Amino acid sequence: MSEHGRTTRRGFLFGIGAAAAALVALTAGQSFGVLSPLNLFGPRRQGAGPQSLPVNRTAEQAKVSSRALDPSWRLKVVDGPSTHEYSREHLLALQQSEAELPIACVEGWSTDASWRGVRLRDLLASVAAPLDSAVRLTSLEPKGHYRVTTMGPEFAHDPRTLVALNVNGEPLDLDHGFPARIIAPGRPGVLQTKWLSTIEVLR
User: Fold this and answer.
1) Within a domain: residue 45?
2) Residue 44: Cβ-neighbour burial (10 angstroms; 0-12, 13-18, 19+)
């Protein structure tokens, strides 16, 4: 290869590397607060949104506002013929646990938050669910790809998995899943079901 060819190839590879580095730098601010001022192309910004957390789908977009704010809302925990129903006040009266867990979205952003609520495994114990059981989670959303999701036993019985009622020291904002949502370690944000309606044990 001639010197000119080698120079051209090096220049091309340098250009590709520089472009990739620039793209990372201009989107990383959605996950790293110190880089937030550089976040020109990322869809979300650190610290932006209700309770300093980004929102990728609002209650209005999900068409759940009236149902989520209805005082008659109840969370159903179902295992075959056994069903327990909990109002938000009832859930708040149960033993509360805390977990520092991130929201990691498929859009590429993530941010940490302090969550407080009832451990999912405690609610499952109320219906005598086996420790190796998975669960089906249903949102109040009338439709959508993630209105119904499943969660394996490795998440459902993890002590850090919560039916969250508060975030960062405040009651959940409606856009963050009020009256209750799931938060579990190591699951994408789209599977952290907001506006929770039903938890069904799968045997």
Assistant:
1) no
2) buried
